[in-house]
Amino acid sequence: MALRLDGKALAQTVESRLQTQIESLRDQVGRPPGLAVLRVGDDPASAVYVANKEKACVRVGVASYGSYLSGDTPSTEVLRTIQRLNANPCVDGILLQLPLPPTLNKDALLMAIDPEKDADGLHTLNLGRLLKGEQGPRSCTPAGVMAMLRSQSIDPAGKRAVVVGRSILVGQPMALMLQAANATVTTVVHSHTLDLAAYTREADILVVAAGCPGIVGAEHIKPGAAVVDVGIHRKPEGGFCGDVRANEADSIAAVLSPVPGGVGPMTVAMLLVNTVAAWCRRHGFKHGLDDLMI
Ligand code: NAD
User: Is residue 6 a part of any domain in this protein?
Assistant: First the structure.
């Protein structure tokens, strides 16, 4: 059986580190860090994700400035809400929960977020900083994956890595982070790739973020590989599954992230990391979280 990359346990460790940091600086700063999660419309999965993020804020001592706007809110009003959060001195991190209603221009709204408050690391400036190896908030899901690999002393240096999926949210920044950690990212495969297995079977580190339940199975995995499953899907019969057929991967991979309890909790933890780091930066304190923000 493959070793489990326990994202839930690691997220708890990260949270207690953040809690300690917040407690030690809160009196000097005069307020706790603040995170604003902006949800527009009624996507049911988003409602659950936002509630999880707000619960995590309470656990570590981050103040929540959540806003909810109905799905028919005009983009000018969403923009005004973002501008108000940009100007709010108690808010250090802003997250625009995706997906947005189809009437709204996601890219324009993400660009309106103050890059220094960009808790999700999706602003063009911050993606550019990642590309150039400059400091800045990092995309939460891939940063969480990197922390999970490190937690099991899996050093990507010199390893062959393959990423399935090329989204701006996960696949692309994931490939950049693996490269920054000296992996040889041989491919980023996507929906137009022919013969997926021919690429994935080469991978010592395989990160799967296709959003297709069970797309990766035994035939896609190199024996002894570390497999990280980013996908998460609600099963019709109840419970969750990922993009990887875990029962097959288990006997081939050396390391496997579970779904649930793998990447999901670390994504939330990294959102808090970006918020606390921004809070420290704004008040001239060292955040000491560099190991989580490569
Ligand atoms: P997306 O739909 O934006 O991108 C999916 C990518 O996978 C695309 O680049 C597409 O080309 C590629 N793809 C689709 N079908 C493929 C196939 N058959 N073969 C190879 N590549 C294929 O999705 P996303 O936002 O990147 O998310 C991917 C998955 O990760 C989803 O299941 C999402 O719910 C999950 N996710 C989980 C977390 C978490 O915290 N656990 C966070 C973000 C995303």
Answer: no
Could you tell me the distance, in angstroms and rounded to a whole number, from the CA of residue 159 to the centre of ligand 1? 23
For residue 92 the two structure tokens come to: 């250090």
The domain of 101 spans: 30-115
Cβ of residue 169 lying under 6 Å from some atom of ligand 1? yes
Q: Is 53 a catalytic residue?
A: yes
pLDDT of residue 293: 87
CB atoms within 10 A of CB 195: 9
CA pair distance 235, 71, nearest whole angstrom: 26
Of the candidates 115, 149, 179, which is a domain's last residue? 115
Let me know if 120 is a catalytic residue. yes
What is the mean predicted confidence (pLDDT) over 147-163?
98
Q: Is 264 in the pocket of ligand 1 (CB under 6 A)?
A: yes
Domain CATH code at residue 196: 3.40.50.720
- Tell me whether residue 20 is in a domain: no
* Per-residue pLDDT band at 71 (split at 50, 70, 90): very high
Paired strand residues for 208 = 164, 229
pLDDT at 66: 86
- Asked whether the predicted pLDDT for residue 230 surpasses 90, the reply is yes
> Which tokens sit at 293?
């923000």
Has residue 35 got a pLDDT over 90?
yes
Among 155, 156, 293, 148, residue whose Cα is nearest residue 230: 148
Beta carbon of 215 within 6 Å of any ligand 1 atom: yes
Residues 64 and 162 both lie in one domain: no
Relative to the CA of 242, which ligand 1 atom is closest? 32
